[in-house]
Write a structure and sequence with these properties.
Blueprint lengths: L3 E5 L5 H4 E4 L2 E4 L1 H14 L10 E8 L12 H10 L9 E8 L7 E8 L6
Parallel strand pairs: 4-5
Antiparallel strand pairs: 1-6, 2-3, 4-6
Helix pairs in contact: 2-3
């Protein structure tokens, strides 16, 4: 299977992805909504990656607020798994992320490519 590319809206940060309810930690309503959106956009469009993958993310935040780029990863990766792009986010063995100038409402351009197996 070859590489795939697609755009997704800006995801909730890890700070807004989880909610504490008593002793339990749950995915927030905003996080569940984002995952459902990813499933509706991507579900069934691609063959699921089963081996190791390289992920490249071009990130366009929704505004100029100061942000930690890594805070969007958890929601984004969980959404890719739920949408059937890959079996598990542990398959990701290479990651490249770049933050660009903001655009209204934000956007993440995602590029997923298989990493060929190497002999030892």
């Amino acid at each position: 299977m070859g590489a795939v590319e697609f755009d997704l809206p800006w995801p909730p940060s890890v700070n807004r992805y989880y909610r504490h309810v008593g002793p339990r930690v749950l995915i927030s309503r905003e996080g569940r909504k984002y995952r459902m959106m990813a499933v509706s956009r991507l579900g069934g469009l691609f063959e699921k990656f089963s081996g190791t993958v390289a992920l490249s993310l071009d990130c366009y935040p929704p505004d100029r607020r100061r942000r930690d780029l890594d805070n969007i990863l958890k929601c984004l990766l969980d959404s890719l798994v739920n949408a059937g792009v890959m079996e598990d986010d542990s398959q990701m063995k290479r990651l490249q992320m770049e933050m660009y100038e903001p655009i209204p409402e934000g956007l993440v351009h995602v590029h997923v490519a298989p990493i060929p197996a190497r002999g030892r």
